[in-house]
Design goal:
By secondary structure, the chain is of the alpha/beta class. The chain has a domain at 14-126. It has 18 helices and twelve strands. It has helices at 3-17, 28-31, 44-47, 53-58, 60-78, 84-94, 109-113, 139-149, 162-168, 178-191, 210-221, 243-265, 273-284, 330-340, 354-357, 362-369, 380-400, 412-416, and strands at residues 22-25, 100-103, 118-120, 127-129, 136-138, 154-157, 197-203, 225-230, 300-301, 306-308, 320-323, 327-328. The strands form four sheets. It has a four-stranded antiparallel beta sheet. Strands 1-2-3 form a three-stranded parallel beta sheet, with helices on one face. It is elongated and about 80 Å long. The chain binds iron/sulfur cluster.
Length: 420
C-alpha cells in the first residue's frame, strides 16, 4: 500500500467513526474552478489595494474603489462552477459523513455544489449587507446597479444561440456556458438602461450563419447592437475561416448592411454595429495612422495586472506595455507606435482603402505572419469590398436621409483630436 493510499484509508476510517466531522477548506479547493488564490501571482491581493472599513465609511472615493474592485471580482466569481472537490463534500454532507464545511473562501461554490451547512469565515462575495439595517442582498443586481448609475458602457462577448455559443465558450469543466450566462445577460439588459449594451461575436468556420446569430442576439435576447469579427488564428486551425468562408461572410455582411440602409432611410434603429462604426469613420473623414486603437486608447489587462496592446494580447510578455501598478512604459509604447505607423507599410502605400484599413488587425498579423507590423495582405479584397459597401451606403444616406448621419457630428471635434 502506498503512503497516499494509507493516508486516504486512515482519513476514511476517521470519517466513518466520527459523529461530527467538519471539513475546513481554503483557496486551493477553488483554483480548479478558475478562481485564483488570493496570495498567488494574479490573485486578488496582488492586483488590488485593500479598502479598509473606516476608509470605506469616510470616503466616497474609497467606496467607489471598493465597488469597482467588487465588480471586477464579480466577473471571476459569477461564472465559476464548482469542481469535483466541492461536489464530493456536498455528497459527504448529504450522506451524513460530515456535518458541514468551514471555509475561508468567499466564492460561494460549496453552496452551489449543494452543501447546506457552510460557515464562511470571511463572508461571501455573492452577497452584500446594508451597514445600517444589516439586510443582505445578492451581489449581481448591485453590480448591475453600479454599472447603470455610473453609465459604464458594456460589451459582452457572446457567439450566438446555445448550439453556437457552447461550441467554444465552455467552462473549465467542459460544460457550455450559454445556460449559465444567458439569464444573467437578460437581467443585465433589463436593468442597465443608461447606456446601450452591445454584443461582440467571434465568427469561426462552422459558425457563419450571421443573420441567425444577429436575429437571436437582437430580437430574441435584446442587445442594442451586435458586432462581428472573424476569429484570428493560424490558418491551419480547424476553426479558422478559409477563403470561401470569407466570401460567405462578405455576402452576409452585405445583406445585413442592406437591411441597415433600409432601416436608416426610414429613421429606424438597426443594430449591425460593423456598418455603423464604418459609417462613423467615413463621416469623420478618418485617415488612420494605425489600424485600431490598440496601444493608444485601447489596452488589454490580464488577470495578473499586466497591460498589453489589447485584449487579444493580454498575458503576452512580448506585447506588454506596462502594469496596472506601474503604469504604461512610455518608451515601449512610443517604440511600438513608431514601428507600426501606416507610413512604414510600403505594401499598402498605393491602396485606396488605406485610410480605413491601415494594414489591418495586429493580432491577425501576429498569428498569420508572426509579426504585428506586417499588413494583412491575405484579406485585402475582403476589406476593399466591405469598405466599398459602406461607402455606397454612406452615399445613399447622404443623398436620401442626411439627418441620419448627424448622430456622428457631435463627437467629431473630440475624437479627431485623439487621432494624430
Ligand atoms: S486593404 Fe490591404 S493593402 Fe490596403 S491598407 Fe489594408 S492591408 Fe494594406
Amino acid at each position: 500500500m502506498t503512503t497516499n493510499a494509507a493516508a486516504i484509508e486512515m482519513v476514511a476510517s476517521w470519517l466513518a467513526s466520527s459523529r461530527s466531522a467538519v471539513v475546513l477548506t481554503g483557496a486551493g479547493i477553488s483554483t480548479e474552478s478558475g478562481i485564483p488564490d488570493f496570495r498567488s501571482p494574479g490573485g486578488v491581493w496582488s492586483k488590488y489595494r485593500t479598502v479598509y472599513y473606516d476608509e470605506f465609511l469616510e470616503s466616497a472615493d474609497a467606496r467607489y474603489e471598493y465597488w469597482r474592485q467588487k465588480c471586477e471580482m464579480h466577473r471571476e466569481f459569477a461564472y465559476a462552477q464548482p469542481n469535483v472537490g466541492h461536489q464530493v463534500l456536498a455528497r459527504w454532507e448529504a450522506s451524513g459523513c460530515i456535518r458541514g464545511v468551514i471555509t475561508q473562501n468567499i466564492d460561494g461554490l460549496h453552496q452551489i455544489a449543494g452543501s447546506g451547512r457552510v460557515l464562511e469565515l470571511h463572508g461571501t462575495a455573492r452577497q452584500a449587507a446594508c451597514i445600517d439595517c444589516r439586510a443582505r442582498y445578492e451581489i449581481g443586481p448591485l453590480v448591475e446597479q453600479f454599472l447603470a448609475q455610473n453609465r459604464v458602457g458594456v460589451t459582452i462577448s457572446i457567439d450566438g444561440p446555445k448550439e453556437v455559443q457552447d461550441q467554444f465558450r465552455v467552462f473549465a469543466n467542459g460544460t457550455g456556458s450559454y445556460d449559465i450566462v444567458m439569464p444573467k445577460i437578460r437581467e443585465l439588459l433589463r436593468r442597465h438602461r443608461t447606456r446601450p449594451v452591445g454584443a461582440r461575436v467571434t465568427l469561426t468556420t462552422n459558425q457563419l450563419d450571421i443573420r441567425r446569430i444577429f436575429q437571436h442576439l437582437t430580437e430574441e435576447v435584446g442587445f442594442w447592437e451586435v458586432g462581428f469579427a472573424p476569429v484570428t488564428t493560424a490558418p491551419n486551425r480547424d476553426y479558422a475561416i478559409a477563403e470561401d468562408g470569407f466570401d460567405s461572410m462578405l455576402r452576409q455582411f452585405q445583406a445585413l448592411a442592406a437591411d441597415f440602409l433600409e432601416a436608416a432611410l426610414q429613421g429606424r434603429h438597426h443594430g449591425f454595429s460593423n456598418v455603423k462604426d464604418t459609417l462613423e469613420e467615413i463621416h469623420k473623414g478618418v485617415s488612420k495612422p494605425f489600424p485600431c486603437g490598440a496601444g493608444l486608447g485601447l489596452l488589454g489587462v490580464s488577470t495578473d495586472g499586466d497591460v498589453a496592446l489589447c485584449h487579444r494580447f493580454a498575458g503576452s510578455d512580448a506585447h506588454k506595455l506596462g502594469t496596472v501598478r506601474t503604469g504604461i512604459d512610455r518608451l515601449v509604447q512610443i517604440g511600438f507606435l513608431e514601428k507600426h505607423h501606416i507610413a512604414d507599410k510600403t505594401d499598402c502605400s498605393q491602396c485606396w482603402a488605406r485610410p480605413m484599413c491601415a494594414g489591418g488587425c495586429y493580432h491577425e498579423a501576429h498569428t498569420r505572419y508572426g509579426d504585428t507590423a506586417r499588413p494583412n495582405l491575405h484579406y485585402c479584397e475582403w476589406i476593399r469590398a466591405w469598405t466599398d459597401t459602406c461607402l455606397r451606403i454612406y452615399g445613399e444616406l447622404s443623398a436620401r436621409n442626411p439627418g441620419f448621419l448627424e448622430q456622428f457630428d457631435d463627437k467629431v471635434e473630440h475624437e479627431t483630436s485623439q487621432v494624430s
